[in-house]
Every structure is written in structure tokens, then in C-alpha cells.
Amino acid sequence: MRGLEALAKDAVRAAQAQTVTIPGGHLWAEIIADVARDRLKATDHAIRERLAHHLDAALILSMSGMGAKLPAEFIALVGPIDRLEGADARAAAAGLAPVLRPSGKTSFLRCAAGGNNGPTRVFCQVAFTSLGRPDSRAFCDRKRAEGKRHHQAVIALARRRVNVLWATLQNRTPFRDNFKRAA
């Protein structure tokens, strides 16, 4: 809720910073901020209500780093779990699976450039927010020790999160921290 209040205050501040004034401009700015705040609260409530009735919501919410909004976005972007064959297909659809790029006699792995960036953003945000957890931090530290940059380590963690979420949804068991050590 703090984000909504800050957004409304920013709207009022922006309206007050205008150099062109109209009669009642400050009042209109406050009215618009109130309407925006109410509409955001209603939208947030509607998202939470729909998420509460979704079959997989509790399992998705159990994964650390998911928060409140990301599961709804994930469900909207990805659709039913059985739409794709497995975690590898889900990672490829999310743009998190490396793609083999052959060039003459050599071939190398590159990040996927096409596809739907929504699931990529969701999983990268989940990975980034879960870095405060000991398992996620240990995984990223291990990747850094292997010579990967921070960004590459977070992408690797995002790819791991795809596998974990896939297994969670397939087995119908909630995610548990420290289930298996990352190191």
C-alpha cells in the first residue's frame, strides 16, 4: 500500500510543479490522485481476489521471491501448466534457455533474443528478490566463483527458479526453503 500512497503524492507534486495554472488546478490534482489511488486499490483487490481462487496460486505463492503481484502476472502470461512439455520448454518459452549459435566450425551458446519477455522479467525479478535467501545467495555465489558476472548469475538463478516452479506445480507440493542445498 505504501507504493500507492507514494504514487498519489507524486501525482499531486507533479501537478503543483506546473507553471501554467488553471482555476481549481490544485483541487483537480488532488481529486485525480484520489481517484487513481482508489482505482489502484480496487485493481489490487481484484487481482488478489482472482488469485485466491486460482488452482495453482498457493503453490506459486509458496516460492520465495514471488511476492503478491508476480504470481498473477505469471499466470496471465504463461497460462495452464500443462501447455508446455517440461521445465526446459518453459525456460525456452521464457527466453531463459541458452540457444546454440553455430558459426562455421565453431558453435557457442547465446541468450535467446526473441520470444515473450514477460515471463523472463517475472523470473528474473523473482530471482533478484530471492537473493536475500541463503540458498539463492549460495547459488549465485557459486556461479560467481565459476567466473560468471552478477547478471549471468542472476539469469542462472532465474533459470533454476523455472525448474523449481515446474517441479512444484508438477508434484503439487509447496516450495520449501532449504529443501536441497544450492552449494
Q: Which key terms come to mind for this protein?
A:
single chain; mainly alpha; 2 domains; two-stranded antiparallel sheet; globular
Q: What amount of the residues lies in strands?
A: 5-15%
Rg over alpha carbons: 21 Å
- Poorly predicted spans: none
Quaternary structure of the protein: single chain
Whole-number total of structural domains: 2
The helix/strand class is mainly alpha
Tally of separate helices: 8
Name the strands of the widest sheet in spatial order.
1-2
Could you tell me how far the N terminus lies from the C terminus, measured between alpha carbons in angstroms? 37 Å
Give an overview in words.
The longest helix has 28 residues, at 25-52. Strand 1 and strand 2 (106-110) form a beta hairpin. The protein is globular. The protein folds into two domains: 2-52, no CATH class; 57-171, no CATH class. The protein has 183 residues and is mainly alpha-helical. The chain has a two-stranded antiparallel ribbon with strand order 1-2. 61% of the residues lie in helices and 5% in strands.
Task: Reconstruct the topology from this structure.
Elements: H1 2-16, H2 25-52, H3 57-61, H4 70-78, H5 87-94, E1 99-103, E2 106-110, H6 117-129, H7 134-145, H8 150-171
Antiparallel strand pairs: 1-2
Helix pairs in contact: 1-2, 4-6, 5-8, 6-8, 7-8
Short description:
By secondary structure, the chain is mostly helical. It has helices spanning 2-16, 25-52, 57-61, 70-78, 87-94, 117-129, 134-145, 150-171; strands spanning 99-103, 106-110.
